[in-house]
């Protein structure tokens, strides 16, 4: 097939370039930015659009910060790795606003009064406190898009420096002692407490007793734990623990669950978040960008400052609710994952004084299946003055939206990691609520994802 010349005019939701074929059909090209022209080959085509691979850049955008490389060679889910940070923020601001108007049906004139500039990162590099590396043929790294092959990426863009050194240390061990048992390495840690938690993963479907035995034998024989300890100590870090997890299916891999075993040490590391001591356990959710997550918490605290009772729905290990809670306020956190609720109760005792801790309750329950009305009528919980919702990427179930409207809290703080599902949910919530403020926040520099905080007031309040 003959090469096709494409001029990119916009960016898609996943950071891919958008252009048009000579026929006028829309096409998507990864790794090419608006204003750039490239030579492409058509990879796939439907009646509505085509997907192309660019192999040569004819002219470059002034926003490009590094030479062009074909997308098939680049890994890590970092479509903006070669795009200036100012241009990244502009894209994210535009994407949120577009979703709110196009999907949510919100009047652009209304947005003009409540839409705030995106909260950019002061240091848009080496920001991730959590890295999930794939292990392939003795190498640990990030996969290329829609591929099971490792590609190249610039570690300085995302990972803590200590993570890169630990990755190098395990590759040295794999070179000396090749093994096919492990297919992943998860590193988590804090630059404030200088603690690191490491976890090796396997997708083996063999009996787990055998897999765990083989993993322990390999780690012992190669001195892997000791190598990690020494690498950490050279940089002033402490290795809190080394774990091994068996996740034999896609669901357990996606949710970071499965059969988890502590090889040595602990199954957690400690963090300082919004000035409060938090404990982050293996497998539990915590925002990957600590500094930017604190900006989310600051926005949430604006909604909660005058509340007597705060609900924190999808609370995870309780970090957000505990960060915004003030003395005298009652906090109720709800989360469906038992391990997360256990962590939340630990964090309650670590972050707060005994008197304040008594003002917090955490319930292990599915938000959708929680009968708030019955619990309130029975006196088991108090009605909320402010509700924080921080749902997964799929957003709120329509049943949860109805529960929020029935609870009729004077204020809602909705923290979203997907502008499209946020816009869909706001379309329903705005029947009873009005928007006080919408603030995008960049927790993922060099990636296409964007968080958003929406503060809402009940209309009849």
Number of strands: 21
Biggest beta sheet summary: 7 strands, mixed
Coarse structural class: alpha/beta
Query: Helix proportion of residues, in percent?
Result: 25-40%
3D structure, described in words:
There is one protein chain. The strands form four sheets. A seven-stranded mixed beta sheet has the order 17-16-15-18-19-21-20, sandwiched between helices. A six-stranded mixed beta sheet has the order 1-5-6-4-3-2, with no helix packed on it. A hairpin with a 2-residue loop joins strand 7 (130-136) and strand 8 (139-141). It has helices at 85-102, 108-114, 161-176, 208-222, 224-234, 250-254, 290-304, 319-324, 338-351, 354-357, 372-377, 398-407, 419-429; strands spanning 4-7, 10-11, 17-20, 26-29, 37-45, 49-59, 130-136, 139-141, 184-190, 195-202, 238-246, 259-265, 268-273, 276-281, 309-313, 330-335, 360-364, 386-389, 411-416, 433-441, 451-458. The chain is α/β, with parallel strands linked by helices. It has three domains: 4-73, OB fold (Dihydrolipoamide Acetyltransferase, E2P) (Beta Barrel), CATH 2.40.50.140; 130-273, OB fold (Dihydrolipoamide Acetyltransferase, E2P) (Beta Barrel); 290-458, Vaccinia Virus protein VP39 (Rossmann fold, 3-Layer(aba) Sandwich), CATH 3.40.50. Helix 1 (85-102) runs parallel beside helix 13 and helix 3 (161-176) packs antiparallel against helix 5.
């Amino acid at each position: 097939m003959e090469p096709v010349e494409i001029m990119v005019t916009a960016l898609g939701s996943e950071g891919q370039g958008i252009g048009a074929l000579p026929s006028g059909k829309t096409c998507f090209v990864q790794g090419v930015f608006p204003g750039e022209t490239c030579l492409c080959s058509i990879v796939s085509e439907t009646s509505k659009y085509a997907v192309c691979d660019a192999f040569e850049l004819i002219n470059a955008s002034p926003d490009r910060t590094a030479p062009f490389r074909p997308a098939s060679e680049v890994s890590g889910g970092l479509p903006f790795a070669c795009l200036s940070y100012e241009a990244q923020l502009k894209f994210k601001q535009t994407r949120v606003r577009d979703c709110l108007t196009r999907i949510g049906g919100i009047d652009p004139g209304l947005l003009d009064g409540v839409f705030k500039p995106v909260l950019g990162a002061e240091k848009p590099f080496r920001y991730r406190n959590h890295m999930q590396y794939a292990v392939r043929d003795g190498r640990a790294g990030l996969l290329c898009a829609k591929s099971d092959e490792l590609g190249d990426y610039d570690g300085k863009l995302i990972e803590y420096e200590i993570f890169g050194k630990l990755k190098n240390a395990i590759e040295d061990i794999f070179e000396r002692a090749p093994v096919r048992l492990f297919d992943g390495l998860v590193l988590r840690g804090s630059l404030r407490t200088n603690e690191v938690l490491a976890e090796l993963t396997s997708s083996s479907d063999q009996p787990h007793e055998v897999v765990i035995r083989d993993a322990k034998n390999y780690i012992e024989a190669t001195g892997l734990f000791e190598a990690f300890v020494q690498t950490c100590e050279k940089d002033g870090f402490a290795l809190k623990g080394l774990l091994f997890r068996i996740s034999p299916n896609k669901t357990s891999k996606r949710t970071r669950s499965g059969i988890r075993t502590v090889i040595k040490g602990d199954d957690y590391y400690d963090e300082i978040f919004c000035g409060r001591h938090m404990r982050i356990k293996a497998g539990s959710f915590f925002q990957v960008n600590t500094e930017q997550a604190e900006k989310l918490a600051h926005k949430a605290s604006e909604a909660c400052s005058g509340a007597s009772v705060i609900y924190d729905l999808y609370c995870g290990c309780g970090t957000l609710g505990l960060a915004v809670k003030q003395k005298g306020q009652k906090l109720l956190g709800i989360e469906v994952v038992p391990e997360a609720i256990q962590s939340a109760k630990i964090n309650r005792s670590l972050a707060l004084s005994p008197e304040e801790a008594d003002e917090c309750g955490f319930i292990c329950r599915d938000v959708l299946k929680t009968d708030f009305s019955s619990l309130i009528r029975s006196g088991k919980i108090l009605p909320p003055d402010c509700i924080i919702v921080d749902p997964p990427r799929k957003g709120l179930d329509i049943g949860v939206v109805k529960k929020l409207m029935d609870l009729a809290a004077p204020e809602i703080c909705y923290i979203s990691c997907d502008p499209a599902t946020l816009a869909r949910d706001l379309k329903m919530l705005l029947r009873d609520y009005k928007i006080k403020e919408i603030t995008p926040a960049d927790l993922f520099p060099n990636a296409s994802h964007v968080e958003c905080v929406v503060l809402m007031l009940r209309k009849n309040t």
